[in-house]
Amino acid sequence: MKSRLTLHAALFAVAMALLAGLGAWLLFGRGSVPIQTDLLAMLPATEQQPLAEAAVQRLAHANGDRVVLLVENVDDDRAKAAARTLGKALAADHVFRSVMAELPPFDLHEMVAPYLAHRFFLLSDDDRAAMAAPGYDPARALAQRLNAPFLDGVGTTLQDDPFGWLQHWLDQQPWSRSPLLPEDNLLVAHQDGGTRVLVTATLAGSSYDDTVQRRALAAVDAAVAQVEREQPGTEVLRTGAVFYAAAARAGAEHDVHLVGWISTLGIALLLIGMFRSPGPLLLAFLSTAAGVLTATVVSLLVFKQIYLLTLVFGAALLGEAVDYSIQYLTARANAGSRWDAAAGLRQVRPALLLALATSLLGYALLAGVPFPALRQMAVFAMSGMLAACLSVFWLLPAMLQRAARPLSAAPVRWALALQRAVGRAGQGRRGRWLALLLLLLALPGWQRLGHDDDVHLLISPPASLVTQEHRIRDITGLGNGSQFYLVQGANIEQTLQREELLEQRLQAMVRRGQLADWLGLARMAPSQARQMADHALIARSLPADDTVPASGEAPAGDPASLRTRTDRARLQSLLVAGGLRSDAAAGYADTWPGTPLDFARWLESPLATPFRYLWMGCNAQGCASIVLPQGDDDAQLQSAADRLPGVTLVDKAASVSQLFGRYRRYASLWLFAALVLVVPVFGWRYGWRSMLRVMLPPVAGIALALAALGYLGQPLTLFHWMALMLVLGVGANYAVFLHEGEPYTAHRPGAMYASVLLSAITTLLSFGLLSLSSMPALHDFGLTLLLGIGFTVLLVPTSRPPVMDAP
């Protein structure tokens, strides 16, 4: 038998060595550590349409590798000098592919020139409404234009646009509405008595790559420090995915260190104090290390990467994985001189297998949630638990051949006193009164329970970053990007027409103060139908040739034939009479009727480059575009899309929140299903009457944990319910350990409950510490486990008759 145990240990050691080599290669041998800090990657695909999900990903990564910096100073010269210095400092670091501080020299007229050929097809909303109303007088528009003051920014010349129609249309465009305007070859905004200058940079790699993050943050910090030193009074605001990803990684590393070191130190002190020797401590950690190593390798093989949630969760896994080795070490300590490694293994095997089965059941239900991060946590835990349990079966017996000293007397006495007190309180009439009292205490807590499914509770970004992003948004006019409209049509023309219908509603919201603005392609390149209708309005407003009969009017869709209705000489006379030079009037009249703007050609132009990501393209199913509402999230955004064909409001956060809510509601059914699955197993093992006593502690622990959460004002989330499933599995383990171990420790009352308390405390030291996590999801998870396991282990003695003194 001894040789067999040795063979199993050797095989297990070889397997762990191979896994360690594979894990080292997976973690460090492929260029970068595969730790995923992208929040979107942890979220499930929730959109009903694949195109909508593709649009979510496109928007998420369109600016994902861009760094936005805003330099502020009350002194105009210092602000501009600081921006130039910042740009040069960043450009010197190769972590940035490109840096834009100073604009290349260009004439603002270059932004107007591409539209001149299409000037008679582009009308602003106000001009369109004015021309459609009776009594419109183009001479009045001409007079207003001639008497208008000099225009800053993107402006048309008088001879190119004497009526101001093109100028009014340009004023509606994103580059004209932005508070940032070119000044001294910089993008500058003057607000609140100070100067703000925009500096942007594009990373040479992914924002979620650890190496890129560290280099980019170091470069930005060094450049900002230089600017603040050289230009006193300068403040640099920052935003970008790289800052959020780095903050999330730093928070996860802090949580890992907090949970890992405190739980490791606490477990070490407990094991040494209980077993009075460092040997059991080393063996327990060896078993746990085997579990964590296996879990990491399996997760990397299955998912190719490790999520932040899993990283912190893995540190907490120490406390549960060590339970299996604790039970074997306790059996050895209680056996004394009669210890036999193989017999000890046979003694604990039923309890460990039953405990493993209940734990795996809880994690398997967790794996059924269509949420990548939770699924990875479940796979991590299941593989880790399995490996830790196998280490007890295959590794520890070969290393624990000799007898050990008994458990420390003091902890056993304390455990016995607690076991007797709880056991007696739970018996007979006293037990029924105690149950009634606990029920009365729990009822107000249950009544106060609510729920919150907001996906933003998944992770909490630093308040300083959020504040800076909001300030940058307010100053630059950038949108929040969390909600957008997906517009679909059979072809380009129908897509643009549907976008224009949506934009009419959005503009109405802007007028009512419900929306700051929006960004859409149809505003910059209208549909052909819109352009032809505008062209017809202009033609109707200009002087006409009275010799052409009304019945001979050309259709609105034929711009060339409109020349017959609009008299060039009369148009020139109108312009000259209004005060325009004759040569300028003649030149303008010669441009009539012009040509419509072609969307496909415009999309390929340099002007469209910053907005090209809003076009989803065309395929056999049709075409699609994105419209971005700008400003704070507004619940009325859905009303703008109601009953508009081909228009869908896509809100990733709301979609995931709805999914969380749906699965939170399902979670109670899953918990009941897990209970139903465990009951027949326990009934088969302990008999139906004893089964009720075994199941009482974890069920009561769950009920009391819910009441405590209600008293604490904690709204229930999906993560609370996932933790309650684990309370059922882990809590049932403690009742199993007590039932299976008590017959072997009758000579030493309290010893088995002492080992159960030891297992529970190690679990609380790890999973309970998650309640201190900076990630709200893990905080909820840890707090629920802390309460549930705490109540369960205190109630475990009620699952057996009161303990009597040994004869």
Automatic annotation (TrEMBL):
One of its GO terms (cellular component) is plasma membrane. It is found in: Cell membrane. Residues 194-411 form the Membrane transport protein MMPL domain. The chain crosses the membrane at residues 258-275, 282-302, 308-330, 351-371, 377-396, 667-687, 694-712, 718-738, 750-771, 777-796. Keywords: Cell membrane, Membrane, Transmembrane, Transmembrane helix. Gene3D superfamilies: Multidrug efflux transporter AcrB transmembrane domain. Coiled coil: none annotated. InterPro entries: MMPL_dom, Mycobact_MmpL. It is a multi-pass membrane protein. This is Membrane transport protein MMPL domain-containing protein. It comes from Dyella thiooxydans. The lineage of its organism: Bacteria, Pseudomonadati, Pseudomonadota, Gammaproteobacteria, Lysobacterales.
